[in-house]
Write a structure and sequence with these properties.
The chain is 30% helix and 42% strand. The protein is an alpha+beta fold. Helix 1 runs antiparallel to helix 3.
Protein backbone atom coordinates (compact mmCIF):
# COMPACT_ATOMS: atom_id res chain seq x y z
CA UNK A 1 0.00 0.00 0.00
CA UNK A 2 1.28 3.48 -0.77
CA UNK A 3 0.32 7.12 -0.64
CA UNK A 4 -0.62 8.39 -4.11
CA UNK A 5 -1.40 12.01 -3.19
CA UNK A 6 -1.00 13.99 0.02
CA UNK A 7 -1.60 17.71 0.44
CA UNK A 8 -3.63 20.07 2.62
CA UNK A 9 -6.85 19.31 0.75
CA UNK A 10 -6.73 15.60 -0.01
CA UNK A 11 -5.12 12.30 0.89
CA UNK A 12 -5.19 9.42 -1.57
CA UNK A 13 -3.88 5.97 -0.68
CA UNK A 14 -4.08 2.82 -2.82
CA UNK A 15 -3.17 -0.84 -2.71
CA UNK A 16 -2.86 -3.60 -5.28
CA UNK A 17 -3.42 -7.20 -4.29
CA UNK A 18 -1.44 -10.01 -5.88
CA UNK A 19 -2.58 -12.55 -3.33
CA UNK A 20 -5.59 -13.42 -5.49
CA UNK A 21 -3.20 -14.54 -8.23
CA UNK A 22 -1.46 -16.85 -5.78
CA UNK A 23 -4.87 -18.20 -4.78
CA UNK A 24 -5.73 -18.97 -8.39
CA UNK A 25 -2.35 -20.60 -8.96
CA UNK A 26 -2.84 -22.69 -5.83
CA UNK A 27 -6.29 -23.77 -7.02
CA UNK A 28 -5.13 -24.77 -10.50
CA UNK A 29 -3.47 -28.11 -9.54
CA UNK A 30 -6.61 -29.25 -7.68
CA UNK A 31 -8.83 -28.51 -10.67
CA UNK A 32 -6.32 -30.01 -13.11
CA UNK A 33 -6.05 -33.21 -11.04
CA UNK A 34 -9.83 -33.58 -10.87
CA UNK A 35 -10.21 -33.11 -14.63
CA UNK A 36 -7.27 -35.43 -15.32
CA UNK A 37 -8.69 -38.17 -13.10
CA UNK A 38 -12.07 -37.81 -14.79
CA UNK A 39 -10.64 -37.99 -18.30
CA UNK A 40 -8.23 -40.84 -17.59
CA UNK A 41 -10.23 -43.10 -15.27
CA UNK A 42 -13.96 -42.31 -15.47
CA UNK A 43 -14.55 -45.07 -18.02
CA UNK A 44 -16.66 -48.10 -18.82
CA UNK A 45 -14.81 -51.31 -19.72
CA UNK A 46 -16.51 -54.08 -21.65
CA UNK A 47 -14.74 -57.43 -22.05
CA UNK A 48 -16.16 -59.80 -24.67
CA UNK A 49 -14.77 -63.32 -24.89
CA UNK A 50 -15.59 -66.18 -27.22
CA UNK A 51 -14.61 -69.82 -27.22
CA UNK A 52 -13.08 -71.03 -30.47
CA UNK A 53 -13.48 -74.51 -31.96
CA UNK A 54 -10.04 -75.30 -30.56
CA UNK A 55 -11.49 -74.47 -27.12
CA UNK A 56 -9.12 -71.56 -26.83
CA UNK A 57 -10.66 -68.30 -25.60
CA UNK A 58 -10.08 -64.98 -27.31
CA UNK A 59 -11.13 -61.68 -25.74
CA UNK A 60 -11.67 -58.15 -26.94
CA UNK A 61 -11.72 -55.14 -24.63
CA UNK A 62 -13.66 -51.92 -25.24
CA UNK A 63 -12.84 -48.89 -23.10
CA UNK A 64 -15.44 -46.12 -23.35
CA UNK A 65 -14.63 -42.70 -21.95
CA UNK A 66 -15.43 -39.05 -22.46
CA UNK A 67 -13.75 -38.93 -25.84
CA UNK A 68 -15.28 -42.10 -27.25
CA UNK A 69 -14.53 -45.82 -27.32
CA UNK A 70 -11.27 -47.68 -27.92
CA UNK A 71 -11.13 -51.37 -28.77
CA UNK A 72 -8.18 -53.72 -28.49
CA UNK A 73 -7.61 -57.45 -28.48
CA UNK A 74 -6.29 -59.08 -25.31
CA UNK A 75 -2.95 -60.75 -26.24
CA UNK A 76 -2.96 -64.53 -26.14
CA UNK A 77 -5.78 -66.83 -25.02
CA UNK A 78 -7.56 -66.47 -21.69
CA UNK A 79 -6.59 -69.09 -19.08
CA UNK A 80 -7.97 -67.72 -15.83
CA UNK A 81 -8.89 -64.49 -14.06
CA UNK A 82 -7.61 -63.27 -10.69
CA UNK A 83 -8.03 -60.28 -8.41
CA UNK A 84 -5.43 -57.84 -7.11
CA UNK A 85 -7.01 -55.38 -4.71
CA UNK A 86 -3.90 -53.30 -4.06
CA UNK A 87 -2.52 -50.37 -6.03
CA UNK A 88 -5.85 -49.87 -7.81
CA UNK A 89 -5.29 -52.86 -10.14
CA UNK A 90 -8.48 -54.94 -9.81
CA UNK A 91 -9.18 -57.70 -12.36
CA UNK A 92 -6.15 -59.40 -13.89
CA UNK A 93 -6.45 -61.75 -16.88
CA UNK A 94 -4.00 -64.64 -17.06
CA UNK A 95 -3.39 -65.45 -20.73
CA UNK A 96 -1.00 -67.58 -22.74
CA UNK A 97 0.97 -64.38 -23.39
CA UNK A 98 1.16 -63.34 -19.73
CA UNK A 99 -0.82 -61.14 -17.36
CA UNK A 100 -3.09 -58.39 -18.62
CA UNK A 101 -4.83 -55.93 -16.32
CA UNK A 102 -8.44 -55.47 -17.35
CA UNK A 103 -8.38 -51.72 -16.57
CA UNK A 104 -5.55 -49.89 -18.37
CA UNK A 105 -5.51 -47.33 -15.55
CA UNK A 106 -5.67 -47.23 -11.76
CA UNK A 107 -9.15 -47.16 -10.24
CA UNK A 108 -11.03 -47.60 -6.97
CA UNK A 109 -11.14 -51.37 -6.38
CA UNK A 110 -14.36 -52.59 -4.78
CA UNK A 111 -15.85 -55.98 -4.00
CA UNK A 112 -17.82 -55.96 -7.24
CA UNK A 113 -14.73 -57.11 -9.13
CA UNK A 114 -14.96 -60.47 -7.30
CA UNK A 115 -18.22 -61.14 -9.13
CA UNK A 116 -16.58 -60.27 -12.44
CA UNK A 117 -13.71 -62.69 -11.74
CA UNK A 118 -16.14 -65.43 -10.65
CA UNK A 119 -18.15 -65.04 -13.86
CA UNK A 120 -15.03 -65.21 -16.03
CA UNK A 121 -13.66 -68.30 -14.28
CA UNK A 122 -17.06 -70.00 -14.47
CA UNK A 123 -17.10 -69.31 -18.20
CA UNK A 124 -13.57 -70.68 -18.63
CA UNK A 125 -14.54 -73.93 -16.86
CA UNK A 126 -17.80 -74.38 -18.78
CA UNK A 127 -17.07 -75.60 -22.31
CA UNK A 128 -20.79 -75.41 -23.13
CA UNK A 129 -20.78 -71.61 -22.88
CA UNK A 130 -19.58 -70.07 -26.14
CA UNK A 131 -19.41 -66.38 -25.24
CA UNK A 132 -19.42 -64.00 -22.32
CA UNK A 133 -19.56 -60.26 -21.89
CA UNK A 134 -18.64 -58.53 -18.62
CA UNK A 135 -18.49 -54.87 -17.68
CA UNK A 136 -16.47 -52.80 -15.23
CA UNK A 137 -18.06 -49.40 -14.76
CA UNK A 138 -15.63 -46.98 -13.12
CA UNK A 139 -17.42 -43.83 -14.17
CA UNK A 140 -19.31 -42.89 -11.02
CA UNK A 141 -16.70 -44.11 -8.56
CA UNK A 142 -13.97 -42.08 -10.22
CA UNK A 143 -16.25 -39.08 -10.77
CA UNK A 144 -16.89 -39.05 -7.03
CA UNK A 145 -13.19 -39.52 -6.33
CA UNK A 146 -12.24 -36.52 -8.45
CA UNK A 147 -15.06 -34.26 -7.34
CA UNK A 148 -13.35 -33.66 -3.97
CA UNK A 149 -10.34 -32.17 -5.76
CA UNK A 150 -12.62 -30.15 -8.03
CA UNK A 151 -14.72 -28.72 -5.19
CA UNK A 152 -11.59 -27.89 -3.19
CA UNK A 153 -9.99 -26.19 -6.18
CA UNK A 154 -13.11 -24.21 -7.06
CA UNK A 155 -13.55 -23.12 -3.44
CA UNK A 156 -9.99 -21.78 -3.41
CA UNK A 157 -10.50 -20.12 -6.81
CA UNK A 158 -13.77 -18.42 -5.82
CA UNK A 159 -12.20 -17.35 -2.54
CA UNK A 160 -9.35 -15.75 -4.48
CA UNK A 161 -11.74 -14.06 -6.91
CA UNK A 162 -13.72 -12.65 -3.99
CA UNK A 163 -10.64 -10.80 -2.69
CA UNK A 164 -10.28 -7.25 -4.04
CA UNK A 165 -7.45 -6.91 -6.57
CA UNK A 166 -7.29 -3.17 -6.13
CA UNK A 167 -8.27 -0.84 -3.29
CA UNK A 168 -8.11 2.92 -2.93
CA UNK A 169 -9.24 5.49 -0.39
CA UNK A 170 -9.44 9.22 -1.04
CA UNK A 171 -10.10 11.66 1.78
CA UNK A 172 -11.19 14.98 0.24
CA UNK A 173 -11.66 18.15 2.29
CA UNK A 174 -13.19 20.02 -0.65
CA UNK A 175 -16.13 17.64 -0.95
CA UNK A 176 -16.09 16.55 2.68
CA UNK A 177 -16.17 12.91 1.56
CA UNK A 178 -14.21 9.72 1.90
CA UNK A 179 -14.39 7.64 -1.29
CA UNK A 180 -13.42 3.99 -0.87
CA UNK A 181 -13.17 2.01 -4.12
CA UNK A 182 -12.54 -1.71 -4.45
CA UNK A 183 -12.06 -3.70 -7.64
CA UNK A 184 -12.99 -7.39 -7.71
CA UNK A 185 -12.64 -9.96 -10.47
CA UNK A 186 -15.80 -11.66 -9.23
CA UNK A 187 -17.98 -8.71 -8.20
CA UNK A 188 -16.65 -5.94 -10.42
CA UNK A 189 -16.09 -2.41 -9.10
CA UNK A 190 -17.57 -1.41 -5.74
CA UNK A 191 -17.55 2.07 -4.23
CA UNK A 192 -18.45 3.43 -0.81
CA UNK A 193 -18.82 7.10 0.05
CA UNK A 194 -18.69 8.26 3.68
CA UNK A 195 -18.81 11.74 5.22
CA UNK A 196 -15.30 12.81 6.16
CA UNK A 197 -16.65 14.36 9.36
CA UNK A 198 -17.91 10.96 10.50
CA UNK A 199 -14.49 9.28 10.36
CA UNK A 200 -12.99 9.01 13.81
CA UNK A 201 -9.57 7.54 13.05
CA UNK A 202 -7.53 4.97 11.15
CA UNK A 203 -5.87 2.02 12.81
CA UNK A 204 -3.69 -1.00 12.10
CA UNK A 205 -5.40 -4.23 13.08
CA UNK A 206 -3.61 -7.53 13.66
CA UNK A 207 -5.45 -10.36 11.95
CA UNK A 208 -6.28 -13.61 13.78
CA UNK A 209 -3.90 -15.68 11.64
CA UNK A 210 -0.24 -15.66 10.74
CA UNK A 211 1.96 -16.53 7.77
CA UNK A 212 5.23 -18.35 8.37
CA UNK A 213 4.75 -17.63 12.08
CA UNK A 214 4.68 -13.88 11.43
CA UNK A 215 1.76 -11.64 12.27
CA UNK A 216 -0.42 -10.23 9.50
CA UNK A 217 -2.02 -6.78 9.53
CA UNK A 218 -4.43 -4.58 7.63
CA UNK A 219 -5.66 -0.99 7.85
CA UNK A 220 -9.17 0.04 8.90
CA UNK A 221 -11.04 3.30 8.96
CA UNK A 222 -13.10 3.67 12.12
CA UNK A 223 -16.26 5.81 11.75
CA UNK A 224 -17.81 7.46 14.76
CA UNK A 225 -20.79 5.13 14.27
CA UNK A 226 -21.00 1.87 12.37
CA UNK A 227 -18.59 -0.85 11.36
CA UNK A 228 -14.90 -0.48 10.61
CA UNK A 229 -14.02 -0.35 6.92
CA UNK A 230 -11.03 -2.30 5.58
CA UNK A 231 -8.68 -0.28 3.38
CA UNK A 232 -5.85 -2.70 2.64
CA UNK A 233 -4.96 -6.27 1.84
CA UNK A 234 -3.30 -8.38 4.56
CA UNK A 235 0.40 -7.64 4.92
CA UNK A 236 3.25 -8.38 7.28
CA UNK A 237 4.75 -4.92 6.75
CA UNK A 238 3.65 -3.36 10.03
CA UNK A 239 5.96 -0.34 9.77
CA UNK A 240 4.59 0.66 6.36
CA UNK A 241 0.98 0.30 7.50
CA UNK A 242 1.65 2.24 10.71
CA UNK A 243 3.21 5.08 8.72
CA UNK A 244 0.13 5.29 6.47
CA UNK A 245 -2.17 5.22 9.50
CA UNK A 246 -0.17 8.04 11.14
CA UNK A 247 -0.45 10.19 7.99
CA UNK A 248 -4.19 9.45 7.76
CA UNK A 249 -4.85 10.30 11.39
CA UNK A 250 -2.86 13.53 11.05
CA UNK A 251 -5.00 14.48 8.03
CA UNK A 252 -8.19 13.71 9.98
CA UNK A 253 -7.07 15.81 12.95
CA UNK A 254 -6.36 18.76 10.67
CA UNK A 255 -9.84 18.44 9.15
CA UNK A 256 -11.49 18.31 12.56
Amino acid sequence: MKIIEHNDRSLHIADRNRQCLWGLLFATPFIAISLGVTVLTAKLITLECQRLESRQIECQRTVTGIFGAEKDRIPGNLKTATTIKTSGIGVVLETTKGRVELAPYRAFVTDRIDKTVDRLNAFIKNPQQATISVEQDDRWANYLGSVNFFIGGMAIAFGALAIPVGMSCKLDRNSGEVIIAKKYWLYGDRQMVLPLSKIDRALVRELPFSLNRKSVYNIHLVPSAGKKVSLSVPSQNLSQYQEIVDVTNDFLRRYA
